[in-house]
Design brief:
single chain, alpha/beta, Rossmann fold, two-stranded antiparallel ribbon, 9 strands, 35% helix
């Protein structure tokens, strides 16, 4: 699927549930290190762009670019696979929750490496490196991204210098409505607005999605979900595989 078309379709109210989480923001800021200039590839509405550095945003979706706040970094409409930028034009290249949407991941990674002088920072979820997620284990197995992420891992390993992985246990009250953000708030997955702003749901087959969510709704009503997973509501955070990957280029 054309991901720019997808986000043109689902992105109109994206910022309603996909807000900046300050803990993810701090992780990314630390991972960027001493980089003073950053190109944010697949930037969307610009949730994790550091305000204290020179930033250029790149995104293929006009709808997402239109949601950027007044005063935010300038943005170009372009794809990761073909960045209209000179070689080594930024200290760092940043890619947050975007690689799984790229048409050609290897081409995109080569572009990140081409335009960055010092480092590349990638934030993604690598499910096998974290705890199993009940939503895909019990209700929506078709949305388990493990196979797709395995291919991304291979591409990162082969196209970039060795990366340092910084684990990020997802907070129970994560402000950014990522796919796994509501691991301790299962009722939120029944909210239509939450669903609309998670690309995993937009890409799912309607039949399997409706059936899985209906079972989740029934299990919440009967108390079955809490009998199996209620202890999650008391945890402060859970490692579901979210990682900041840092590749040093110089």
């Amino acid at each position: 699927m054309d991901m720019s078309a997808l986000y043109d379709r689902i992105g109109a109210c994206y910022s309603a549930t996909r807000r900046t989480d300050p803990r993810i923001e701090a992780l990314i800021r630390d991972a960027l290190g001493d980089a003073r200039s950053v190109v944010n590839v697949g930037a969307g509405a610009g949730a994790y762009e550091p305000a204290d550095r020179e930033v250029l945003a790149v995104d293929p979706s006009a709808t997402m670019i239109a949601q950027r706040r007044r005063g935010s970094a300038p943005a170009l409409q372009a794809s990761a696979e073909s960045l209209p930028l000179p070689d080594q034009s930024f200290d760092a290249a940043l890619a947050v929750n975007t690689l799984h949407h790229w048409t050609d991941v290897r081409a995109g990674l080569r572009e990140l490496r081409r335009v960055a002088r010092k480092r590349i920072v990638i934030f993604l979820r690598d499910p096998p490196s974290g705890q199993p997620f009940w939503l895909t284990e019990d209700y929506l197995p078709s949305l388990d991204p493990s196979r797709r992420i395995a291919a991304l891992r291979d591409a990162i390993r082969e196209e970039l210098p060795p990366v340092k992985a910084l684990p990020f246990p997802l907070p129970r009250d994560c402000a950014d409505g990522l796919f796994a953000a509501y691991w301790a708030r299962p009722e939120m997955y029944l909210d239509g607005e939450v669903q609309r702003n998670i690309s995993n749901f937009a890409l799912a087959e309607e039949g399997s999605l409706a059936e899985g969510l209906a079972r989740l709704e029934a299990d919440l009503a009967s108390g079955e979900w809490d009998r199996k997973y209620g202890e999650l509501r008391r945890l402060e955070s859970l490692d579901l595989g979210h990682r900041a990957l840092v590749a040093e280029l110089a």
